[in-house]
Amino acid sequence: MLGIMGVLADTRHTTIGALAARFEVSKRTIARDLDVLAQAGVPLVTTPGAHGGVGVLDGFKVRRDLLSTHDAAMLHAALEALRSVDGDKAVTQLIA
């Protein structure tokens, strides 16, 4: 979900299909993750139709300072270590 937030912060608008391709998961998984983000208070905006997609409400800023640089590095190292032991695709997606 942090990866999705990063994409939305950078692009402001994308499709569920593009997110699914980027993180190598199903569209349903992305939809569930978006539901969790919405329940957590992220103001998501969806647009139906051929040029539709998902984004965040104009003016919403994704806080990039939730983790210190050190904490982010430690979290990344822990996920890398877990991936080396487990090889789980979900761990790989968290790292992305």
TrEMBL record:
- Extract the Pfam families matched here: HTH_11
Q: Which domain of life is it from?
A: Bacteria
Q: Which SUPFAM superfamilies match?
A: Winged helix' DNA-binding domain (SSF46785)
Q: Which residues form the Helix-turn-helix type domain?
A: 7-50
Which PANTHER family does the annotation name? PROTEIN PAFC, PTHR34580
Q: What is this protein called?
A: Transcriptional regulator
> Which species is this record about?
Eggerthella sinensis
